[in-house]
Amino acid sequence: MVGNVHGSAANDANHCDLLGRSGGLGVAVARRGRSRSHRWRTGWRTARSELSATLVIVLAPSYNSARFSFTPSLASKEAMTDADIRAKLRSLIDPELGLTYDRLGLIGSVQTTSDAIKIGVQLPTPAYPGRERIGDAIGSALSGSADGRKIDVTYSWSVLGRETGGKIGLRIKNVIAVGSGKGGVGKSTTAASVAYGLKHFGAKVGLLDADVYGPSIPLLTGAKGTPVVRDIELPNGQKIQRLEPIDADGMKVLSIGFLIRDNQAVIWRGPMLHKLLTQFLQETDWGELDYLIIDLPPGTGDVSLTLSQLLGLAGAVVVCTPQKVALLDAIKAISMFDQVKIPVLGIVENMSGDIFGRGGAKAKAEELRLPFLGEIPIDATIRVRGDDGQIASLFEDDNPVKPHLLRMVQNVAMQITRRVLIDAPMPSLEIL
Ligand code: ADP
Question: How far apart are CA 20 and CA 17, in angstroms?
């Protein structure tokens, strides 16, 4: 899915969320100089000061636009061409990923007019954190040679992915697995949060519950219904049948929980499990997605093995709680992913706080040289909303866990971007 400044309303909300506002119209004024603090005002306001230049970032949530404007006071001797401008920007480095703007493909369009230089920044994910800092860096890079013209920066996004599901007919840019060494650590809650979080940022997301031994996604999302099989006609006239996922708050969700009776225990033999997962992926109408999140069963490797054989996953998120005994299981999960050639995107520490402690997973991530994706506090808000089938609402109102969840989701999205750009794909799995 491609988003732009005129895209979905979700982008607005997130832009404000990231910057700590809940809505309304605001102008952020960042003065260039030693201090780069952002001050917030309601209503329109510009700042003119004794400083050499003023950056004005205008956020207009109701119009879903984010614009950065910079009026340099210095004039260059020669006007720059579009190519000169691109040359100046290509070597800027994004601090979040340590990659150049050129490598990230951040600079989309460059347009110069007599009074403005217009830069269209194209982000590799709508969950890109701190996008205003890109406008800041562009403003600084061009300030000395803009010839008095103002610098306008607009943002759009198009999710970057390896699209490895193509070989089984999926049109999904990134498939992300969420796993844990054992049950009860909040894996399904985290999987649902990653899905709703990415959706909140504006991405097109699906959620597949592959925790066939204890499917809890229907409960957490509040999704109900029985998936139906539909006939679909392909452009070449061929008719095929596809399973239709359930719609949960605008997100496609599929779970074995929709197909079995409540309280029914299901015993899976390996080949049956393999067949079910293949159907859930290959014979399901997921449509075009930016991200598909898969909630894995805890511990075991059989589902992961099947996934790894079917498609190249963007990576796995490992969820664990901070206490020592839980960390041991997380290490086993990481080693399992290594064995089935699924790259580990990083570790999430869930339920951190007074009861289970804090920081254990972060220390373990550092020790294992894996990215730490964030900590989610132990908080009754999560348990209550999970029980009510309202995980989506964690992203809709102000609550104590929302900033933690947003940051975790952004870290997941950025790790995927980093992997697509830097890391070679994992070797394909040898089947014994
Ligand atoms: P798993 O998938 O690892 O078995 P779940 O996601 O089903 O775990 O979560 C188990 C229970 O813990 C659920 O009742 C859920 O609401 C609760 N829970 C998960 N994370 C948190 C948290 N950070 N704070 C409070 N309760 C949580």
Answer: 5
